[in-house]
Amino acid sequence: MAFPSDTCKGYFGTKRFDRSKCETGMKKIHMLTAAALLELDFKEPSLDYHSLMKLTKLLTRDCKEDVENLYRRMCFNVFAHNRDDHSKNFAFLYQEKTKSWRLSPAYDLTFSNTYYGEHTTTVDGNGKDPGLPELLAVGTGAGMGRKTCSKIAEEIRECVYEKLGEYL
Predict the structure, then answer these.
(1) Cα separation, 69 vs 64, whole angstroms
(2) pLDDT for the residue numbered 18
(3) 49-59 and 64-79 helices cross at what angle (nearest 10)?
(4) Which of 7, 49, 82, 87 is most exposed, with minimal Cβ within 10 Å?
């Protein structure tokens, strides 16, 4: 959703994903961040995507769609230079109908250097300049096929460079 502005090109807004309509108005959907689940201080770099993948697999009962979505986010964060990928920026929503947890939609995605100049969540131990080898190590370590990981990483890289190339 776009909101016009007299001082700039405008603003972007989106509907909250942690609310749903009910007969009395809006109802909160139970949400937990990786920081809360793992008792981490999101201000301190203390997480690796290997651990985040493992958490996703455990909490979502190995939901292939959620594992792949997390892999896609990791690739986006690497290629779009979003280094503010801390543990509070990954969340899970409770689905009452199925009594299960699912990975939330992505949020807080922006070009960022962070204070340390590194990813807050490391990619196979690399926070400074992770690339395809690290992305593949995390994906295959989570049980995804190497060809699938390579294909997804290349799709994300091409899309990011096409859409955001002038900013990167």
Answers:
(1) 9
(2) 85
(3) 160
(4) 7
